[in-house]
Every structure is written in C-alpha cells, then in structure tokens.
Specification:
Strand content: under 5%
Number of domains: 2
Radius of gyration: 22 Å
Number of helices: 4
Helix content: 40-55%
Amino acid sequence: MFTPAPGAPSTLAADLSQKLKDWTGQRWMVSISEGGAPSIKEREKTAKAARLESVMQQTLVRAVLDRFPGAEILAVRDAAVEDAPAEATEDN
C-alpha cells in the first residue's frame, strides 16, 4: 500500500503491480491509500529548508546578509564532514 505523489499517473498501481510480476514471476496486489507519511524526498526537502532557516538566524550570517543586500545562501555544508581527511584506501 502506498500514497502516490501529486501528479502521479492514475495507472501507477497497475503499472507497478505488472512490473513486480514481470520481475519476480509472482502476482502482486498493489493498493493506493489516502494520506500517509511524507515521502523521503518531501522529508529531505523539509529538513533542508529547516537547516537553511536555522543558519539564516545565526548572528554572523544575518549580519553578512544585512551588509550585502541581495546576497543569498545557495548551500549549507557541514564543515566537520568537509574538513575530514579522506579515508585511506588499499592503494595508499
């Protein structure tokens, strides 16, 4: 059972059922539910927006954005991950 995203084709459940049968040789019943939890993509989008909003509220960031009208934040990266040394490979 799944909830299709807005704009999904009306034949999605039947198409998915047929593809699963083709791949596995087993008959599959696929049903559509109403409502449900947000998709992974929707959760990622919400988390990204929340992180951006959090960064924009920091004093230093706010000061920079106020000093440079029209400036915008294009990406937020984790400095700890960016600065971490690359893991050693078998070749090193």
